[in-house]
Amino acid sequence: MSVDHQVTGLAIVQNPRQASSHGQGAVRLNIESSGADNDPMLYQAAKRGAEVYMSVQLNGQKLSCLLDTGCEVSIIGRRILPDVFLEPNKRKLYAANGTEIPLLGKTTVKFSVQGRTYSASLTVSEAIQEMILGIDWLQTNESHWNFGSGTIVSEDEV
Questions:
Q1: pLDDT tens digits, one per residue of 97-133
Q2: How far apart are CA 114 and CA 23, in angstroms?
């Protein structure tokens, strides 16, 4: 499947009427660990730019993963997972500008953040060039994001 456009809006929603109501942008995070092995992981952030990224290890690759509360469904670009088997996916997703995002399927992956292992159910698209963990992943992992201090606490680990 060939894609002649790339999705640049950060809000990814399941209903096109919701797309225009989602704001874009946040804060770029530099993530550092400050939790004991059995404590919830606390990530400290330094504010820079207009996006929020976390460094992850996925299949031996170090990636900058976007954290996006306006993204209802976590998603990843096919170029990051070129050989992974995909399950069928009947849902439709839309970018912030209302454009439908072409989907290839879905998969579940394990990745690590500073030595802690997490799992994510991801929708896969050729129109996306990065890994985006949305509100679905943040809620599943009982994450607490303090925008004032720039910290994220994640309770769950695989």
A1: 889 999 999 999 999 988 889 999 999 999 999 999 9
A2: 30
> What Å distances lie between residue 39 and 142, 148, 153, CA to CA?
13, 22, 10
Decide if 27 contacts 52 (C-beta within 8 A).
yes
Distance CA 82, CA 72 (A): 23
**Neighbour count for residue 4 (Cβ, 10 Å):** 5
User: Taking the complete model, does pTM exceed 0.90, yes or no?
Assistant: no
Whether 41 and 153 have beta carbons less than 8 Å apart is answered as yes
The C-alpha atoms of residue 11 and residue 128 are separated, in whole angstroms, by: 12
CA 136/CA 158 separation, integer angstroms: 16
Angle 93-125-130 from CA coordinates, rounded to 5°: 105
What does the block give as tokens for 65? 């993963």
Nearest 5°: phi and psi at 135?
A: -60, -30
Q: What is the DSSP letter of 73?
A: S
Of 104, 93, 87, 85, the C-alpha closest to 1 is 104
